[in-house]
Input
Amino acid sequence: MARCFICGNPAVIGSYCKECFRNQNPPVKHFKPLTIKACVECPAISVEGKWIYEPTPDTIPALIRKKVIMNPEYNLKSMIVSSIGNFQESFHPVQYEVKVLVSKGKHDIEQTYEFPLQFEKARCDRSLSAKSTYYEGILQVRGITAVVEEFIDLAIERGKSQGNFLVKKTKMASGYDYYFTKNKFVQKLANELKKQFGGNFKSSSRLVTRDRQTSKELHRVTILYKSPKFFREDLISVGSNVYRIKSTVGKITAINLNNGKSERLSPDAKFTRLIPYTTNVSKISPHLEAIHPSTFQSVPIRNPKPKKNGERVRVVYIDDHSLYLF
Ligand SMILES: [Zn+2]
Ligand SMILES: [Zn+2]
Output
């Protein structure tokens, strides 16, 4: 059997093994240089003097593909350009790899390269002429909680990969103003927040400019989202009533544990959040009683249900003299 004259392994392509053939004949001949100017204030990028204001996640990979010069020795079967590393600090990933699959005769050869991309910080014409950051929509979130803030942060990360960008985040009295490059994204995010956490939003829109070149109108949308102070399944007390929240979408409805009836609560109701406990039933007749988690005394349950002696039950309380099942 013929041996590769470089390494001595079985020769499969001419007088080379596959690996040595690839080393002698790199699938990519060379990369043409590519310099991208990226606006520091918005997602715009510029290549060879032309600004692209709405790049999609494929804009840069497509530019890179054009700069890959293949070795004519091979048939190109596929080329995949993907971003590598994270890009918290910028609008776009700054590192890319090029993976090529080529064939020589009946042999497939694969190789991955890091593309030598040059990134330069710049300011786009739009940001220079507007003398301010370009954005289309503002999401104002008030009454923000850590959970809501985290939900928004994750949505922003996801949005980035679909070409939606946060350009500014401003701290306000009880929340933040988020400035986004796309109106549609603001609308979508407000809907997601309402669906996830309840609460309500108000939307307003203003014609701010007409693009001189395209005569396209820009409407700037502002959405004010008020995050509810409590969430579904929360246990709260308002005055001497104990409630379990049923819904915070639109109207706030809750079950009054005193009588099992559904009631509507005001979003501004002064409330106390109750801590749920697990305890044991201590008596089932003549009335249901359980051990109070704070005093360890047997006390009546205000909303009794059929239970067995000693059974574990979940309770809340607002005083030392009684408990509520929930
Ligand atoms: Zn070899
Ligand atoms: Zn810009």
Remarks:
- Residues 4, 6-7, 9, 16-17, 19-20 surround zinc ion (ligand 1) (CB under 6 Å).
- The chain has four domains: 18-125, 135-226, 234-273, 275-326.
